[in-house]
Amino acid sequence: MRYQFFDQHPEAADFRVDVIEGLSAAEPYILPKYFYDEEGSRLFEKICNTKEYYPTRTEVGIIRNNIDDIVATLGKDCLLIEPGSGDSYKVRLLLDALRPIAYLPIDISKHYLQNEAKKLAAEFTWLNVHAICADFTGKLELPDHVSTINRVAFFPGSTIGNFSPSQAVSVLEEIRAMVGGEGGLLIGVDLRKDTNVLDAAYNDQAGYTERFNKNLLVRINRELAADFNVTEFQHYAFYNEKEHRIEMHLVSQEDQRVLIGDKVFLFKKEQSILTEYSHKYSVESFHQIASQAGFENVKTWVDKDQLFSVHYLVSN
Ligand SMILES: C[S@@+](CC[C@H](N)C(=O)[O-])C[C@H]1O[C@@H](n2cnc3c(N)ncnc32)[C@H](O)[C@@H]1O
């Protein structure tokens, strides 16, 4: 069987518990993993294609320009695992050259993952695709029959930036455990740069990032029987220079009362709900994080404008 699907999707009850916990906090938040229902995944794909969102095309350029070196560094015949695989676009750049024994895309967005993984399996007819719907920050089990040796994780898109530096260390530790002592990690990490470039990337003119952000409330309304008035919240994204991170918020436009099931939440005018961080690193500060997680850097590739970085890490 070339294509298999393994369903470890988190329970709907987890979504409810996390949303209620987040919105009850002194500084309300919603975890960014909940952006990704099918519509959220589609909107993220649109964001990646906007002119302002430099990370996707820059990372793709780095991989394309260095493909021979990347493949020589990783070696062939690995078991390739991609946490947060999304549309599996970037992995297509590696597959023919890398010839992995199998590809394991892992994503929380179930229907989107199924569609994308099936498309990939139809396109690369020689490839074994084992798609796993799961939360990679939670309990995740790889299928029993997959190889335990020569595992390589591919973690592009600077998804690691969505975690605080200390959480990022834990996520990297989990990935290190998943690939084992002999395995490796090819990871894309967004770099610090001019504030205007960063602010523009998270406030695209076409409004896809705004829709992506607000889709969280649409999803909560639909799945958790809530009554958010989506037009009464404003998308707000800015670069926090001190913390080296983009912060994305939904800001209440008036004093309002929202029901989630039978729970009441009161939002004051100007009060914000934090929906995402996107931390930006220097090459050195990322290597420090990786080293705290037990990884050593084998090689780093950066574009000529130093916007984005791709690193190959192995256990130290
Ligand atoms: C920033 S996007 C990156 C997508 C793709 N890897 C790329 O480079 O364009 C993050 C992806 O990770 C998935 N994701 C986010 N949090 C997740 C989690 N906790 N567990 C599993 N998948 C997650 C999302 O559904 C989305 O596809």
Structural descriptors:
about 325 residues, alpha/beta, Rossmann fold, 2 domains, three-stranded antiparallel beta sheet, binds S-adenosylmethionine
Structural summary, described in words:
The strands form 3 sheets. This protein has an 8-stranded mixed beta sheet with strand order 1-4-3-2-5-6-13-12, with helices on both faces. The protein has helices at residues 12-24, 38-48, 54-65, 67-74, 92-98, 110-123, 165-179, 195-201, 208-223, 283-292, and strands at 3-7, 79-83, 102-107, 129-133, 151-155, 184-190, 233-240, 245-252, 256-260, 263-267, 272-279, 295-302, 308-315. It folds into 2 domains: 31-50 and 195-279, no CATH class; 52-193 and 281-315, 3-Layer(aba) Sandwich (Rossmann fold). The protein is built from 10 helices and 13 strands. It has 316 residues and is α/β, with parallel strands linked by helices. Strand 9 (256-260) and strand 10 form a beta hairpin. It is globular. Helix content is 36%, strand content 26%. S-adenosylmethionine binds next to helix 2 and strand 3.
Structure, briefly:
This protein has helices at residues 12-24, 38-48, 54-65, 67-74, 92-98, 110-123, 165-179, 195-201, 208-223, 283-292; strands spanning 3-7, 79-83, 102-107, 129-133, 151-155, 184-190, 233-240, 245-252, 256-260, 263-267, 272-279, 295-302, 308-315. With 316 residues, the protein is an alpha/beta fold. The chain has two domains: 31-50 and 195-279, no CATH class; 52-193 and 281-315, Vaccinia Virus protein VP39 (Rossmann fold).
